[in-house]
Design goal:
It is a single chain. The chain is mainly beta. Helices cover about 15% and strands about 35% of the residues. It contains 2 helices and 13 strands, in the order αββββββββαβββββ.
């Protein structure tokens, strides 16, 4: 009886090995990569962040459903013009991937409450932000990618994921005009102050972003 038990146990172990090997083979050798991370400016606001100055971002991603985690707050950084990250993940055929990202990476001023269930397909979730001195820009991007069948994926691979960022904050630009006819007159403007909220919450699963729960204040001084 003991010999039969050992044989059966060995058979189970063998079956497990076979299943694991099948899972590995079913996967892709094409790693998930990122490229062309840029800022989309929908308004005429004077942006402080441009494509050239984005140096890093945090990315979250899942495959098919929120339980199929691919990335959780993974740091993606740029080196010599190329984007890279540490926890290498690979594409699998016939699946839909959902990506969301925040920049700058590892901001101490941001806390996230990730969306759950089907809502996660719409965006990252709800984030709270504290902008202490009014100088930190906050950018957000999301992307949806569907992989082809196994044969196509193996033959053609996958394009890097393009993250189109947008500003979650607005930069305020002041333009002063005077009524002097003589252009040689010089006007000096000093001690301009503006008080704005420095804390807020935004739901990134919505079609239109709007800050709520505004509180606190930062006094911006110019001149």
């Amino acid at each position: 009886m003991k010999k039969l038990f050992l044989v059966a146990l060995a058979a189970v172990g063998l079956a497990s090995c076979v299943q694991n090997e099948e899972l590995v083979v079913a996967g892709s050798k094409t790693a998930i990569a990122f490229s062309d991370a840029y800022v989309y400016n929908a308004t005429k606001a004077d942006p402080t962040t441009t494509t050239a100055t984005i140096e890093d971002f945090d990315v979250w991603a899942f495959m098919d459903s929120v339980s199929g985690t691919v990335f959780t707050d993974e740091d993606v950084t740029k080196s010599n013009g190329a984007w890279g990250y540490t926890n290498t993940q690979y594409w699998y055929p016939g699946h839909t991937y959902y990506f969301a990202a925040l920049s700058p990476a590892n901001s101490a001023n941001v806390t996230e409450e990730l969306a759950a269930g089907n809502a996660a397909e719409l965006g990252l979730g709800e984030i709270a932000f504290t902008n202490v001195d009014g100088t930190e820009d906050l950018l957000y991007a999301k992307a949806k990618v569907t992989t082809p069948d196994a044969a196509t994926l193996a033959n053609q691979g996958m394009e890097p994921v393009k993250m189109q960022f947008q500003h979650l904050l607005s930069k305020v630009k002041f333009t002063f005009q005077n009524g002097f006819v003589n252009e040689h007159h010089t006007v000096v403007v000093k001690n301009i102050k503006m008080t704005v909220p420095n804390k807020g919450v935004i739901d990134l699963t919505q079609n239109t972003f709007a800050w709520t729960n505004l509180e606190g204040q930062t006094v911006l001084e110019m001149g």
